[in-house]
Write a structure and sequence with these properties.
The chain has 10 helices and 20 strands. 17% of the residues lie in helices and 26% in strands. It is an alpha+beta fold.
Length: 478
């Protein structure tokens, strides 16, 4: 996947360079643009359009030596904030978060943001902080998001993901609750395993995408930060008549992610007697990390090998610094949300509020095989999903690469033959591949690999081509 960077015959004095100067993180729709559903109502006139015909043009590349991050020596401001728009929570027309976010056990800043347990460490270390879904989070450190991104691909990066929600479910009816609430048949999930899944509404829309950990005496669910309050209330509504205990673990724990090819070698000496080498992918263990009772799961959101660690809140900074010290010789860096977003985008992992929300379904998003068990257990939304699966999908999520230079941004129109056929959900200048890439929903007729489309960037149609996902596949999986 690592491509030779080619020089292109176009002027970088215009929009392409201006877009690159905004940063490498997947780009958000410009301020004031429409913020409707990710794919929107997709309609075609009766005009027929020839599909799958290639112009023969090569995909656009970053020019040799180009830095997709903030220009050297220049401090990012509000307009050039790396990922500030791209990582902003999905909003309604009034610009406010779609869900009320209130978690009283957490500390808050003067402007109302929730603080992670590592907030003071980030500030002391010079991290640039932003409001992300009501949390004061590091978007980047002084090293910059491009270096952080590439370090995860080549060595390792450590992320504070304490903003993500986590619930523990215990009691004799835990399995019954989970089978009703989410789409994966967890009766197949043995103790010590983990799996990706979805919460769906009665209509089949995606309430949230989640991760499930099967622990010795309970289950742990990891949910998206913006959806924590909504998800907890929804799960509680399903507990009626069941003997279960549903506990919010956000205040007494801290969640960290160590990602990259060197991640497991770094964490190994910190885990006491546990044999880290015997862990396969999506395994979870209760263990000791730097002497503190913790939970370690081999999972992540970057496309690289790695692990996530649930540690006691009181020990979080001690464990964070111990991991950084253990990984220093291997090139470990602390990483912010800018790198996390561009890493997940290259791996084509969905982001809630971008590729998925309650207006999208698992089949259109391409998540059914990974996250939905249609045979077996009954769950909320299953009849609706069965109906969706029984008929042709009107639109599909696709990946595309730009043939003409330019960064596609969320909300930009996707056209074919001069007519709108879809909408961009994510776009970026890819540090790992040197290409301009994006994802978006298009009408099913235009979802085929090789189909030529255009992305409307600042009132100018730029050529693009539908390509296979993911954009990047790590060579480090064993």
């Amino acid at each position: 996947m690592r491509c030779v960077i080619a020089c292109l015959r176009f002027s970088w004095k215009n929009s392409a360079r201006e877009n690159l100067s905004r940063g490498l993180a997947p780009a958000e729709v410009a301020e004031g643009a429409s913020r409707g559903p990710a794919h929107g109502p997709l309609k075609l006139s009766g005009r027929r359009i020839a599909l799958g015909q290639h112009s023969g043009k090569s995909p656009a590349r970053l020019p040799e030596g180009a830095d997709a991050g903030t220009p050297k020596g220049q401090s990012p401001n509000a307009d050039q904030a790396i990922g500030e728009q791209s990582l902003r929570p999905m909003t309604e027309e009034n610009g406010k978060p779609p869900f009320s976010f209130f978690m009283s056990p957490h500390m808050r800043t003067g402007r109302g943001c929730v603080l992670t347990k590592l907030h003071e460490w980030h500030v002391r270390s010079g991290a640039r902080m932003i409001d992300f879904n009501g949390w004061d989070m590091p978007i980047q450190y002084p090293t910059g998001p491009r270096e952080e991104h590439l370090r995860v691909r080549s060595a390792a990066g450590l992320f504070d993901i304490d903003h993500m929600g986590r619930f523990e479910i215990s009691g004799p009816d835990s399995l019954a609750l989970l089978q009703k609430a989410q789409t994966w048949d967890v009766s197949r999930l043995d103790e010590g395993r983990a799996h990706y899944s979805l919460l769906c509404s009665e209509s089949g829309g995606i309430i949230d995408d989640i991760f499930l950990y099967h622990l010795p005496d309970s289950w742990l669910i990891i949910v998206n930060a913006a959806n924590t309050t909504k998800d907890l209330a929804w799960l509680e509504s399903l507990t009626r008549g069941l003997k279960v205990t549903l506990r919010d673990r956000g205040s007494d724990t801290c969640l960290l992610a160590l990602q990259g090819p060197a991640a497991l070698e770094i964490i190994k000496p910190l885990c006491g007697d546990m044999d880290v080498d015997e862990l396969g992918f999506h395994r979870v263990r209760v263990c000791s990390i730097v002497g503190s009772p913790s939970i370690l799961c081999t999972a992540g959101y970057t496309g690289e090998p790695g692990c996530e660690m649930l540690v006691p809140a009181a020990d979080s900074e001690r464990i964070w610094t111990a991991v950084l010290t253990a990984g220093e010789a291997r090139g470990l860096l602390p990483c912010g949300l800018g790198a996390r977003d561009s890493l997940r985008a290259e791996a084509c992992l969905p982001l809630y509020g971008r590729e998925i929300d309650e207006s999208t379904d698992p089949f259109s998003a391409g998540l059914a095989r990974a996250a939905v068990s249609m045979d077996g257990h009954d769950f909320v939304g299953k009849p609706a999903l069965a109906a969706i699966a029984s008929r042709p999908l009107p639109h599909r999520l696709v990946g595309f690469e730009m043939v003409d230079a330019g960064i596609p941004r969320q909300g930009y129109a996707i056209q074919a033959g001069g007519m709108k056929v879809g909408t961009v959900t994510t776009g970026l200048a890819s540090p790992s591949t040197g290409r301009f890439l994006g994802m978006g929903y298009v009408e099913a007729a235009f979802a085929g690999i090789g189909c030529e489309v255009q992305i409307v960037i600042r009132d100018s149609s730029k050529a693009a081509r539908v390509v296979k996902r993911p954009f990047y596949t790590s060579p480090h999986w064993r």
